[in-house]
Amino acid sequence: MAMTRREFVAAGAAVGAALGGGVVLPVGLAWERDRSGSVIAVVARFPDVVITDQGSLVEGEPVWFSYPSEGQANMLVKMGWPVDHGAGPDRDVVAFSTHCTHMGCPIQEFSPATGTLGPCPCHFTTFDLGKDGMPAFGQATQHLPRVLLRLDGDGVVAVGLRRPIYGHSDPLHGVAVRVLEST
């Protein structure tokens, strides 16, 4: 006996619900196990690295440095105008990874007039450092990793990263990781 259109749709809905339930049910159980009353977070312990002192920063002149590990290129610059997430009294000091988020190519050009890093030598992506490292042109779709900064007296100190560095699932390469638990 042939199936009617209504029976076919109802059978398809039942099969879809059964398959969907098979995927959703384990996820729901996993969430339930984490509702013990404590919040668990894994936090990487980034090293504090003094990059330079504020007095030596010249507006528009980049300072190149490695962070969080040797060979991971970054750039710190005093932009000259307040920017998103800028440090310092004028909120104009920022630091970003110089590895393009499209394919990881090293970017070594900075335009102080526009506040952009790039173009990337591989596919010409340019990033707007005044807008949290947002891609302004080119193939990249992700913002540049931002180096978190702290001012310590006159020193400009790198204390962490916002967003992963292209090609590095572990940007610290084995540096200590701690697990925080709180209630």
Descriptive overview:
It is a single chain. This protein is an alpha+beta fold. The protein has a domain at 44-162: Rieske Iron-sulfur Protein. It is 16% helix and 32% strand. It has one helix spanning 5-33; strands at 39-44, 49-53, 63-66, 73-78, 93-97, 110-111, 116-117, 126-128, 134-137, 146-152, 155-162, 177-182. A hairpin with an 8-residue loop joins β7 and β8. The chain is elongated and about 85 Å long. The N and C termini lie far apart (61 Å).
* C-alpha Rg (nearest Å): 24 Å
Strand fraction band? 25-35%
User: How much helix is in the residues?
Assistant: 10-25%
Structural class by sheet pairing and helices: alpha+beta
Number of strands: 12
What is the makeup of the main sheet? 4 strands, antiparallel
User: In CATH terms, what is the architecture of the domain at 44-162?
Assistant: 3-layer Sandwich
- The helix-strand sequence is HEEEEEEEEEEEE
Identify the CATH homologous superfamily of the domain at 44-162: Rieske [2Fe-2S] iron-sulphur domain
Number of helices: 1
Q: Which spans of ≥5 residues are poorly predicted at pLDDT below 50? A: 23-35, 39-43, 174-183
Mean pLDDT across every amino acid position: 79
Classified by CATH, the class of the domain at 44-162 is: Mainly Beta
How far apart are the first and last residues' alpha carbons, in Å? 61 Å
Label the overall shape.
Answer: elongated
Kindly report the spatial arrangement of strands forming the biggest sheet.
Answer: 6-7-8-9
CATH fold node name of the domain at 44-162: Rieske Iron-sulfur Protein
